[in-house]
Amino acid sequence: MTQKTSEFALGWKVLLAGLVGIAFGASPVPFNTLGFVIGPIHEEMGWSFAEISLGFSIFGIAASLLAPVYGWLADRYGVRIVAILSTFAFAVTFALVGLTPASIVIFYLAWFLVGLIGIGSTPVTWSRAVNMWFFTNRGLALGILLLGTSLSALVVPRVAVWSIAEFGWRGMYPVVALLPLLIAVPLAYLWFREPRPEEAPEGLMAGGALLGMTLSQSLRDRRFWTMWISIACVALAYGGAHVHMPEIIKQHGMDAQLAAGVMGTIGISIFVGRLLTGWLFDRLWAPIVCLPILLVPALACYWLQGTASDETRIYLSAIMLGFAAGAESDLIAYLASRYFGMAHYGKIYGMLYMPFGIAASLSPVLYGHVRDVTGSYDGMLQASMLLFVVSALLLLTMGRYPDFVAEASTIRPEAPVET
Q1: Is 234 a residue whose pLDDT tops 80?
Q2: Would you call 232 helix, strand, or coil by DSSP?
Q3: Boundaries of every domain in the chain
Q4: pLDDT (tens digit, 9 = 90+) per residue, 371-415?
């Protein structure tokens, strides 16, 4: 393909199927429903809010640890079959959470099962195919793909609220599970696939084979661990700030209505952040794009400290944090493909998704612990300022993107190639 527009002309169906798959997959759906069922589950079961929330943490950590396994399956057997089967399995296991008896151990096992099976319905798989269809416009395509989380935030809470009103919290799970089952899976079956060699963009293959490093080569590369630490820092700083934002705002003397408006602002800034950063990635060196995007949230954390009720600063802080969240997911997929290639992308992305998922699952617990111990979020906000700065500065040490096409041309045909 030689023209920039041809990538979208050939790959738009795959991109749309991936966007819907992410929207109704295991990454955003549990996150967008948990807040609506905590109260009803607490009333019926008598479990504490912390005990109920721990189920979500178990899900997130289990899924993150298994991300490299699903990445390997996508590399080995093709991304299409892994994405479709995992999305179907996620729908089934998510529906089964509604059958949980009055046993918190079984409740935790149910969430562990959702994480065990559903991780293949996350960007670990969908982003692999999109990266294979797009090269010149890869950043923008990934930004569009990950707008699936914004679509989920618009659709899933409304379906959850309606189904709880009609069928109770138990009925909510099978009703919401119909979204991946009846929309994401059929669309993926019709449109989601990897490109044939003649459809792939230039710079992706040589001699019909995908270019890039193996996982073992990546693990020996300093840049891999630089990215790993940077991703963990951002997720640890942002995850709890998002979940606890309504409570943070309350400490500034503001009411629930304003808190809802601030959360809406975060959603909009995530949407804009993904598109803008993706567009910039295609034109500039990605780490330099991320420098201001990851530094300004440090200022947001500074403004969110204390109890001053400056409404303008609160909204600006929400916008800054939303931009960082919008850039982070794009960053993992984009940098993994540019620095390590596509030959073993699934495994490598899975390893880089691991710190994101684990840190994002633990971050709310840390924010809550600091609040419980000190009566304020200030201590964790100060730590998050440092984490954002460290993350941004680490990325500046990554160096230029490798030229896998040039490297491949220097390998003699008889030279062994690691698989």
Answers
A1: yes
A2: helix
A3: 1-202, 206-419
A4: 888 888 899 999 999 999 999 999 999 999 998 866 665 544 444
Q: Do domains 1-202 and 206-419 have the same CATH topology?
A: yes
| DSSP string for residues in 250-290 | HTTT--HHHHHHHHHHHHHHHHHHHHHHHHHHTTS-HHHHH
Q: Determine the Cα–Cα distance for residues 48 and 330; give it in Å rounded to an integer.
A: 35
Q: How many beta carbons lie within 10 A of that of residue 277, not counting itself?
A: 26
Q: Write down the CATH number for the domain with range 206-419.
A: 1.20.1250.20
Q: How far apart are CA 116 and CA 176, in angstroms?
A: 19
User: Which pair of tokens denotes residue 401?
Assistant: 């993107």
Q: What is the pLDDT of residues 114-149, one digit of tens each?
A: 999 999 999 889 999 999 999 888 999 999 998 898
Residue 119 DSSP label: G
Least confident among 159-163, 205-209, 229-233, 249-253: 205-209
What are the φ and ψ backbone dihedral angles of 115, each rounded to 5 degrees? -65, -40
Find tokens 């997959």 and name the residue: 25
* pLDDT at 56 > cutoff 70: yes
SS3 content of the chain, % helix, strand, coil (to 5): 80, 0, 20
Is domain 1-202 given the CATH code 1.10.287.130 in the classification? no
User: Which residues sit opposite 210 in a β-bridge?
Assistant: 205
Which pLDDT band, with edges at 50, 70 and 90, does 5 fall under? very low
User: Around 54, how many Cα atoms within 13 Å sit in the side-chain half-sphere?
Assistant: 11
CA 83, chain centre distance (Å): 15
Amino acid at 34: L
